[in-house]
Amino acid sequence: MNEKIEIVRRCPLFAGIEEKDMQALMACLQAKEMNVKKGETIFSVGERPDYIGIVLQGKAHVIQEDYWGNRTILTDVQAGDLFGEAFSLAEATELPVSVIAGEDSTVLLVDSRRILTSCSSACNFHTRLIRNLMKIIANKNIMLTRKMEHITKRTTREKVLSYLSACALIHGSNTFTIAFNRQEFADYLSVERSALSNTLCKMRDEGIIQFTKNKFTIN
Question: Cyclic nucleotide-binding domain location, by residue (predicted)?
């Protein structure tokens, strides 16, 4: 665990907790590591959501699939980010989504009950952890609202323009790199990959954007 402490400390969940306290905190939370290959499942739909996950290395996708196997990426989870916290804290009986590794990854699993319940040694971490967790959930609600702004547009072109515009504002530049490959981008916007590719090519031909793989420039 020692080599992962610095990565863990950068996670918003542990903001404000001093380095000297991290080892004791990890022991208190009974955190455990999980190594997964790209495409492997971390959490499966239907499972009981007892754990909160933290990506230490790599990335993950929170996905939802319908009866016919059509996939939508709800959230992209990067190193240092959490997943599964809303379902775990809500004490849902089963997960309505799955979490899969977007690339070879290492994740940290923490039993949510260990965060919400003070341990017998009465450590002083829990108040800070709960405060941090509330802030993370609030920020994720904001992110989901932004996503709704993109996917509720009528056409694929409008969805793409909405998303790329938001990325430019977030990065403070008209050139930026998105977190998705082409299939993941289509899944995120809830469109067909072929429709997305055609739209991007038309927008490039019209001089609206330039792109190389997942690096974009808005002209």
Answer: 13-111
217 confidence band (pLDDT: 50, 70, 90): very high
Q: Quote the pTM value.
A: 0.72
The CA-CA-CA angle for residues 96, 39, 158, to 5°, reads 70
- Name which of 108, 95, 94, 37 is nearest 63 in CA terms: 95
Please state which of the four CATH numbers 2.40.160.20, 2.60.120.10, 3.30.420.10, 3.40.228.10 is assigned to the domain occupying 2-142: 2.60.120.10
CA distance 27 to 17: 14
- Residue 87: closest CA among 123, 134, 48: 48
Quote the distance between the C-alpha of residue 107 and its chain's center. 12
**Residue from 55, 52, 61, 48 nearest 109 by CA:** 52
pLDDT in tens, 132-190: 888 988 888 888 888 899 999 999 999 999 999 999 999 999 999 998 999 999 999 99
Instruction: Give the amino acid at 9.
Output: R
Domain 153-218 listed as CATH 3.40.50.360? no
CA atoms within 13 A on the CB side of 36: 27
Helix ranges (H only) for 45-97 are: 85-89
